[in-house]
Design brief:
Radius of gyration: 20 Å
Family: Belongs to the heme-containing dehydratase family.
Helix content: 10-25%
Keywords: Heme, Iron, Lyase, Metal-binding
Shape: globular
Strand order of the largest sheet: 6-12-9-11-10-3-4-2-5-13-8-14
Mean pLDDT: 93
Number of helices: 8
Cofactor: heme b
InterPro entries: OXD
Distance between the termini: 35 Å
Protein name: Phenylacetaldoxime dehydratase family protein
Strand content: 25-35%
Number of strands: 14
Length: about 375
Amino acid sequence: MESRGDAMSWQPEYPRRIPERRPAGHRPRAPRWSAEFERPFTAVTSDYYAVQVRDASDPAVDVFLDIAAASVDAGVGDAPDASEILTHRTADAVDVIFLGYWTDPTRHARWARHSALGRWFRDLDAAEVEHGAWRETIQVPLERAETIYSSPDREFGFAACEGIRLGSTTSNGYFGAARDRMPLSAIDPLEAPAPHTRRESVPSAGRRLRAALGLNVAVIRSGQYWEASTGEQLEDYERELEPKLLAGMDYLATNPDDTGTISLRILRSGDPRTVPARRETSVLGHFSSLEQLETWAANHATHAAIYEHAIAKNRQYGEARQVTTWHEVFVLAESTRFEYVNCHPATGVLAYAEELWQPVGHD
C-alpha cells in the first residue's frame, strides 16, 4: 500500500496487472471527486438496521428511532463515525432504517454488541413481535470500495466519516471507471463464482433467518441531493431527472434475471415523521457481480438517459449546480452478514440467498 499525492492523502494501491478500462487519451467531460483518506484504514463498514411495519405511524417506529438516537449520542462508546435515518416504502411494508458507517471494524464490533440498537435487534423474538426487523452488514477492506461525487461541497455516505475528504479524480466519464477506482481491480477481475437463483418461496414469517450471498456480490448506494435546489433547477430535477432515475430503477427491479439485480430499495433520507420530507434520496442495490452492474450502465437506454441528463446539467450550470449526485460501491467478501426477523419474504436478499439458516439462541 502506498500513498498517493501529498503525505496527508492515503489510498490503498496495487501494482496493476489487469489493464484499466480508461480509454487512451480520455479527458472527462465533467469534474468529479472521490473519497481520500487522511490516514490508513483497514476496512469500511456500513451497517443497516431496520424496523419493518405496515405504516410509518406504527408505535414500533417511535421505539426504534428512540433506540437508534440513544445509540449514537456523544457519550456512547464506539458510536458510528457517521449515521443516517432512511425510509423504504413498498405496497407491502415500510422499512424505517438506521444506517451507521465505521472506519474501524473493532469499534463497530463492540458497538454492535453493546449498543442499545444492537441489543434490541438481538433480543427480538421472531415468534412474538408483531412487526419485522432486519440487519444488513456490509464490511469490506478499502481495496474493495470506490466512491464518486458530482460536487465536493458536502460529504455523503461513507465520505461523511472523520478522516475522509473528497479529492478530485479523472477516473470518471467512461464505462468501467468505477472498476478502475477500486484498488483491488488492479490485480483481481472480481468475478462472481456463479449466478444467483431466485427462490420460489421463503417462509420468513415468525422466523429469524440469516442469509449468505457469496463472493464478489456488488453493492451500490447511489444518492441524489436536491434540498438546496430552487426555481428551474428544482423543476428540472423533479420533472426530468427523477423520472429518468425511477425508470432505470424500475427496469432493474423488473428484470432481475437479465440485470443480475438481487435487491433494490429506493430510500428517502430523514425522519419519516417529518413533513415535508427532505429532498434527498438514495438507491441501495445488490447485484450478482460488478460486471452485471457495469453492463446495465454501459448498454441500457435507461442509464444513458440518467447519465446524459446529469452531464448536460452540470455543463449548463457548472459550479452553480444545485443538485448533487454520488455513489459508493462495495464488492463483498463472503463474510458479509444479512439477518431478517419476521420479515416479508420479498425483503432484501431473502429470495436470492445462497444459504438460509435459522440460528438457535443468540450470539
